[in-house]
Amino acid sequence: MRCLILILIVLSSASPAFSNKFRFEDYPDLDQMKVFLEQSFSTDSSVIELRATFVESGQATLISHSEVPYVEKYIYDINLCRIYVWRWNISADYTKAGKLVGLYLNGDTVLENPNGDPASFVATPKIGQETIFRGQRPRPQADLGETSLGFLGYDQDNGRDVWVDMTITGTGPSRADPNDLGKMHAYNTNLWRSIFDPIDAKFIANYSGDCPTGLKTN
Chain centroid to CA 60: how far? Predict the structure, then answer.
């Protein structure tokens, strides 16, 4: 009996429920997060699995698309020592049955939806309605650095008061590390899926590592 109890203790300590708990902070690089997504999810994955990973474990904010059914995203913001607010925006397309068919990392395709990107659909524009504009995503929490993120936007049907159909072009760092922000990464994607979308996360996490000398997280 005593041996059985010891075996159960050892097995429980090695359980994936404890060892595989997901944290956004464990993936400070775009490439690292992409590899994690590619290795962890496929068309066999369900909406329940992704929500368990990013929302329940990772504490991301769940946002359902306001116009397209079965499309949602998981956003998580990190204040990098007040010099930059990093955003993870992992968005996903599902079938009516809740199976994954498309997966995107900050708007970049990880798992391509064979039916195309449903979030990019817009009505046929009328002549003169297309608009190209310069946009700003305020980030006042980064008061020692980038207090706003600039991008170039394209609104194909300016007659509709709906921002989710807009396409953007912009850049951002490749690493969520205030000591090494990596290289600039170029984005050309749907605004709703991007790091520039105006929706606020339920909270902004403080950077969990060591800040550069002289800087504080809060």
Answer: 9
